[in-house]
Amino acid sequence: MTKPTHTTPAVLVGLCTHGLAIARSLGRRGIRVVALESNRTLAGRRTRFAEVVDAENINGPALIDDLVRLRERFRENPVLFITNDNMVRVLAEGLDRIAPLYRFHWSDPSVVRRLVDKKEIEALAGECGLLYPRSLLISNASEVASRRAEFRFPMAFKPTKPLSGFKALKIESESELERALRKYEGTISHFLLQEWVTGMEPSIYFANFYFDREHRPIASFVGRKVRAFPRNLGGACSAEPADRPDIAEEALRFFRSVPVRGPASLEIKEDDSGRRFVIEPTIGRFDFYILCCIANGVDFPYLSYLYQTDAAPLPPSRQAPERGTMWVDFHSDFPALLSSRGIPGVGKEVRDFILRPKIFAMWAWDDPWPSILEWPRSLASYASRVLRRFSRARGG
Fold it and tell me: How far is it, in rounded angstroms, from Cα 47 to Cα 49?
């Protein structure tokens, strides 16, 4: 079989951990990858699989101007990949300028804006018969007294807009809620308070899809978080494939309620009684743990590239079985390197973990420099957290 040649370049915005996974996925196949990055200290800039171009601010409106200027370097429209929700919002507002210049398979901007707004998710889940944690919208500490009867602690406390300084907090009391609101209300306009859904990370599933122009999924993957940082609140730092067709079907039901195209995923949490709750969707980009999908048989970035360059037929994708390769991001949470659920005990658990195939978020034998450069920062960050916990324990 003749090896395909890929002449269309790809433009990648962001060389964070999952931007690095996208660059490697494409670069290893001989695709020219040009990466826009505004953080001059990011270790991912040292990847050998992308040409790096400095940008003013990839998380703000200046991104549109940078992309327009970058297009002048190419003879044809490149395939565009983005890596976080701030970029999704910016492109949703500036798509009329970008659409003629890049290959960018996306939903209608109104759909994108609705799916990235946490205030909209409860209505969308209800429209397709899915459970969503009971939620309250609140903007400042002065509202606490008037709405006291509505609170049922513990609760999850989140900014309505992503990437707003923190992902989520677990609030145990009214006094904790007031402190959190006073801390963030000057910089964040609205917060979401949600009933706490019981269960730890392995009960949090993610269903990933790539939808064609007729809103049909051409590839899918279901996995689960194994560990997150902060625990049970933050982003995944280890994940694995999961054999859960029921999760995939519920996620598809959610996305059938809106005309979605391109990459989309839905996070679902199963509580201790087996009830499943929609947590949040991702639209217009691939998730942080995209390398888990790639390592387990579903290479979404490459499939997206092929689809947008009209390659036919698309190669088949088949998800690896449940005991497939575990994805580990120990740079975000060092104990994730030691065990799937914390520091391992003895006996069978240790043997299983040691023998389990793994892939690391930043490390790659054919592209070692990003991980090597990130090690000192990661160790210093972890040591600082340990010292702070020790200091608080002594003070208590």
Answer: 5
